[in-house]
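Milestone M4 deliverable, item 7.
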Amino acid sequence: MVAVRNILTRLCKRSGLSPDRLRSTEIDVLPLLDLLAVRQYARRAGIDREEAVLPLVRDLARRLEPTNRLVVDTELSLGLLRENPPAGIDPGRLYGSDLGERREYLADRWAQLHEALGVQPIPATLTVRSLRGTPERRAFTELAAQLATASVFDGAHVVDIDGSSTTTAAEEVSAHTRGVVTVIGDAVIDHIYVVDEIPGPGGTAPGSYQEHPGGKGLTRAVAAARLGLRVRLISAVGDDDAGSRTLEYLHSERVDTELVKVVPYAPTPVTAVIVAGTGVASRVGCKDERIRLSAHDLRSDAIRSAIATSDAVLLTFEQPTGVLEQIMAQLRQLPIRPLVVVHPAPRLDRPQYLYQHLGAVDYLIGGDTELRALAMTPDGATACGEQTATRLRALGVGTVCAIQDFRCAVWSEKVNDRFQPFPTALDDSVGAHAAFSAALVSRLVASRRPAAREDYIWATAAMVATQSVGDIPGAMPLASEIERIYRLATHEH
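Output delivered:
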């Protein structure tokens, strides 16, 4: 932050900040150009890093406290007031070609400029000399801190060099476009250990190891993309090699990553997945609390637009309860809601805080343990899960799907049934739940109707198609593979 602040204050000289100045200056600007926010902004806009700095700095400067905003705007000659200058303010002098002249004009019009920004009370008028002390240092410290810690969300609205806004991928999707799915969930690096048998305490077992991008959000996004849907993922990764690998993998699977938050100076989370030869798995999650979506992230126009223009939203309950509340509240407030499919978590803090929002959930899909945790079903309840499903439907959930061992039980207004696949080689598969959700959504988005019995059979066939003990998202099936198993499954049924 100190290095960036020093670079910015030196760039104030002469005509201020510009791409040409960054290319020709004798100042070592590499720490500025190498910032995560600058690199991400340049990649998104398809421009050089030197060209990305000015629009990004303008964007972040608009978020500063008014006095600090005026100082950095004038001294760097950002031009935030050039298009709509306050009455009596001459942009030619405020953004003149000489730093000394800009400072003098700012000091002279100090009260007028603050009044135009609605600041009350107006700070005491400064001289040029006093301006160059604490006010300047404070303003550039705040701006440098914003730049040094900015994530990809801070560049969600790409702004061109001339200050005009560039539409992001999320905003380009028309509300009338079909087959658009937004997935909100975790992206991690899976460390996968495959053993014949999961050892007990103190035991050992021979096995094999591989690592691969994974996570409940990422796997569902890949599963939906492989079924021909237009998919974007809202998630978070670290600014490290693992985060870069994750983004590259998502790109290769045609998943839009514009809304994947990259957190500076934090490692991408890791999950150890121990898979037995039967396909049954155990997990150990090693998460960094910095790699989380926040309430601030969810207020961004890009995310709100993505949710509102989706045909379906797949949400995994892995985020903090407060974040989940905000997502669900946004969904409830939409005049026309997308299809909402939720996967609960086995350990959910204060699930009762989400109960008021469960009326927005069309399909709740999970294992028995996860559904019980959300419904707070007491021990000793019916093993079939009917009591849990009744509790959840009474809270507003449209359909409850309980999944276990490639089998599905459904409770809804139109369908109450159990769906058994034809005999399988494995007992379970790590990616089965993700494949089920994506397959069901693909059918419902295409048909624009509530799920019927054949849709659940098709989604159950998708689970069977994931039989694998290795790369989890890589096991997500194509529609042709599901269709082949579906024909066998319908024959069995």
